[in-house]
Structure formats: structure tokens, C-alpha cells
Amino acid sequence: MLEDGSVEDVVLVTQLPSDSWFEGFALRPNGKILTSRLDEPELYTFNAEDPEAIPQVIHNFEEEANGLINVCPIPGSNDEYLVLSGVVDLANIEFEQFIVWRVSLSPDDSSPPKVTKITEIQNTGFCIGLIAVTDRIVLVPDSYKSCIWRLDIQTGEVALLAADDTMKAASGAGDFFGLNRVRITDEYLWFTNTSAGILCRIPIEQVPDEPSVGLRLTGTVQVIVDDIPHCDGLALSRDQKAVYTCSYTDGHIWKVDIGPAGKGTTSVVMRNLACPTAVELIYVNNRPKIFIVCCGEIEMNWFVQNDQNPWSEVANINEAVTVTVVTREETIETI
What we know:
The chain contains no helices and 25 strands. It is mainly beta. β2 and β3 form a beta hairpin.
């Protein structure tokens, strides 16, 4: 149960390879989940509602990448996604050769995905994610250059959208990642800074009448909270009064309640997960369901997890595991 009492049960949906690191996540129209592996260039799908489901690799990008950094749905499309690949050296925290791909899936996965190389992203630092504003304009957060790029996938043009001190990594030892997750709503661009432990938003306006622009900033950065160190993942409720993010080092989930003045109050609502790295909030029949992607017990020399992990007994198995779900207001599911 979550510590705020909103959830009656927590569910282990499935077990991905135990020696893997997953970051990207998307819910497909057919109810299946699409997820991307960071330490290998593999794209997976599986049915979270099927107790016998085992994740299936549907495409490998090994010819031009050794890791997949993120995945996002394309607005207005049906089961089509953008995938961000790169050459990844997790041990030395090096990322380069970023490529954006378009992946089109069949509803029943009866045919192989259609994969199209869209563009290479040049002259950037660490492109840590993708958020599609329209079917043409994509936002690309850059954790090393502390900015957000606007990518036109029709022309391949990359332009600076936003840069601010709140996007810079903290200066302490081991603080490698600054700007991390980005989300957009009608009124705001939201982002987290992992090492600084902050959640921020910037007022925006969307400009559908200018296809090559997509959106504009209309204000300055607003800091919502500054007490979420080593945060990863970012999910917002429909009314934007609640934000969820996780600590990949301490293994817990934060909920940030946002007041009318735009200031937040942080609380820990779940503890002792095995390295959560992504959080997605999806509404099913108008009820929120939170999915959490966990990397299990994978470790690097720059990252050691808290050893108080009640999931450790299942963290190294490689078959699908399902536990019965009972819900009240929300359902939390872990992957």
C-alpha cells in the first residue's frame, strides 16, 4: 500500500532481463507496453494484463547503436513511436551518436515493426529523452549542455528552445546528470533536474498554426520543489495538482502535491523498490494507473543502491511474474 493510503496493492507485472537497464516506456493502443533498453539496443513489448506474458524483443538497432535511451508516442498516429538511440558507455557515463527513429507497429504484432531512420542529432551533449509536441516537433532535453532542444524531424533542424541554471547538474562528487525528464501540458513545460533534486515548470503556449515551431515559452522557470535528490521519471495527474517521480538510488516514489500558487509539497508514498527509473501515469476508464519501471539490482561503479530491498528475491529471475491487483483510487504497477 502507498503511504498516503491511496493504493491497496502493489503488483509485479513482469520480469524483464535481470541484468538490464530500462528507461523508455509507452502504453500502446492495444494495451500492451513498449519499453526500450538502455544497456542494449533492444525494443520490447509485452501485455501487462496477461499473467503468462513474457516480454518480447521486437527490434534490435545493433547496426547503428548499442543502447536505446528513450521512446515516445507520435501525436495523432496509431501505434507509431519515436525512438532515441545512441552509443552508450554506462560504466564511464559516456553517450554519443544520437539517432531518432520512427517505429510503426502492427496492432496484433503479427508483422515486424517498420523502422525508419529519421535524423542524426549533431553537436549536442547527452540527449537524455524525447517528447513529441506534434507529429513534426520534438523536444530533446540535453543533460550535459543543460538545455532543451527543439528538433524538427521533417527537416532535421535542431534549435535551442530553453537553457537555464536550473537545468545544470549540481557540483558535488557523483552528480553527473542535470536536466532529465521533460513533460508538456497545455500550459507548462515541466522538467526535473536529477542531481540538483528539483522539479520545475515553464509557462508555454502551443502554436499549431506554425508547424515548424510547435510551442513557445511565455515565462520564466518556476521551481516547484527542491527536495527530490537523484530523481528519475516524471508523471503528472490530469489536473496537474500531483506529480510523481522516483529516487533510483533510494528506491522510493515521491508524490508532489502542487498548490494554487505553484509551490509543491513532497511526500514519499512508496519505498524499497529495486532501482526505479521511469514512472508513467495512465488513465484507464478515467482511473489513474501508475507504472514504475525498475532496473533491479544492476550496479555501476558510480551508482550503488540501498541494500534494503524486499524485491531482491525476485530481482534476478527471468520469467513473467504476476500478482493479483486490487485497487481503490489508483493502481501502482511495477515492471
